[in-house]
Structures are given as C-alpha cells and as structure tokens.
Amino acid sequence: MRFLVARNPDADSSLPYLLRLPIGGGLVLKARDTWPRTARVYCHRADGEWPAEPELVEDVPVVSCTRRGPAIDLVLDRPRENRSQLVFTVLAGGREAIFWQTRKVAATARPGARIPGRRASGIAELQILVDTRERYPYRFARQQTSTVRVALAAGDYGVRAPDGELLAVVERKSLTDLASSLSGGTLVFELGKLAEAPRAAVVVEDRYSALLKHAYAPAGFLPDLLARVQIRYPEIPIVFLETRPLAEEWTFRYLGAALAETMPAGPGNAEQSAGRRRARRPWPPASARVSAGRTGM
Description:
CATH class of the largest domain: Alpha Beta
Order of helices and strands: EEEEEEEEHEEEEHHEHHEH
CATH topology of the largest domain: Rossmann fold
Structural class: alpha+beta
Oligomer: single chain
Distance between the termini: 47 Å
Number of helices: 6
Number of strands: 14
Number of domains: 2
Largest sheet: 8 strands, antiparallel, barrel
Helix content: 10-25%
C-alpha cells in the first residue's frame, strides 16, 4: 500500500493537490496542501479518477490506513510526518467537508469545537435502554436523556440507532460482582455475550486499587484473572470509576459517543446538532442475537 500525492491537473481548482488513499479501492481527494504541518488542511472528494500520468509530489509506503467512524487514520512508513487523520463532516446545508489533521495541529486549533455540556456528544435526543433485570438502575436524572425498559440480550444499558439496531451496551458491576465473576469463572461468558454487540464496555463502581486489596482473595489473584480476560477480549474496555454517580456519567457519555460515532462528524464532532437534521452514515450491520439469559449477575 502506498500514499500518493500529485499535482492537481485542474488549473482552475483552488485545491492544487490530489491525494490517493489505499482504502476502498483507492480514495481520491483534492487537497489544499501536501501535509497538515501548521494547520488543518481542507480536502474535498475529487470529481474524476486518479490521473493516468500523475505529476507525483509524494509516494510513501503505508503502514496502515483504517476507517474509524467518521475518520480515516493514516500511518506512513517514514520517520517524520507519518501520522495523520482525515475527518469527514457535513456542514450547514448538507455539504460534505474533509479536514486533514495531525495531533500537533489538532491541539492548537479546534474550529467549531465546544466542551460538552449536559448533552452526550451534543446529541439532542438520546434514549438509553435499561435492561428489565437491572434491579437498581441508573436514572440519569442529571443528564439530558430519557430511558426505556427493555430486555437486553447482554449488558445493563444500551443505545439503538434510529432504525432500531442495537449499537452499544454497557455492563455495570460493583466490585463484589466483579470479584465473584472473576473467581467463579463466569466473567468470560458475560464478555462473550457483550462481544456480540457492535460496541460494549464494562463499568466498575470502585477503584482498581480496591481489587488489589480484596479481602477474600490472595494478593494479585483477582488482578491477574482480570488481566487475562482483558487480553482475551481486548475490544471490551473495563473501566473503573470511584463512585456510582461517576459510573453513571461515564455510561451516559459512552452510549452517546457510540451513537455520535455513526453520524458524519467533523472537527466539531456532534456539537453542531442543535436539533438540526443531518445526513447519516450507514449503520453497522445487525449483530447476532443471543439468548436473553445471563449468568453471574
């Protein structure tokens, strides 16, 4: 795989360069510069194909080129100027825009970005699913969201796409629950169910240090078991939060981010959504359904 930069043969274009990314059969973009050195570089999809005889400016081997939600992470095989990201967004009026950035320029300029307030990822209407078997569920009273009770195949809280497809789930655990499921060997089965969802996480209402000091297990036993299951299921983060309110807040933000990630979002992410309707990216494919019964809860 190679990353190619060529001069734009269209002399009338305000974007003098063409980029060719090794993704989806070769994505061709028009760009204002050859690399985002001092500021974000504005890009746009090229109208035509890659030129038959391009005037190359850059020809660099690619380590990885991966789409992650509304962004493409690009890593080049060279010592400098090797990591960047192209973020796809939809501007007011429905026009697509692409911003090419590096970590350095993203830290110094964030056009349109705002610190999230009470809304999760700026989403105006977020409905959280609460499993019917959750005895003392989060109420999300301090967050701008609504809840509905449903029978989830896995997890205690979830969020759906507008088409009804489940996008993400969160399993809530106390330290006692976690210790019991680790020592009893049931946590791996719970994680196996969670892995059926497109995105999943476990939130623990305590500090990780409390697991090290657990009174009913030898020193290091439970942390070692936890490390093993995390290696087995690296796609499922296990997050420790000190208190129940913090775990509730994290769950709210995680589920909101899962929904926002399926939307076109740019440097301002989803803060643009002050109730405004926008075009949406295709939702993830349906996940396999599993038995509603769960263990270790």
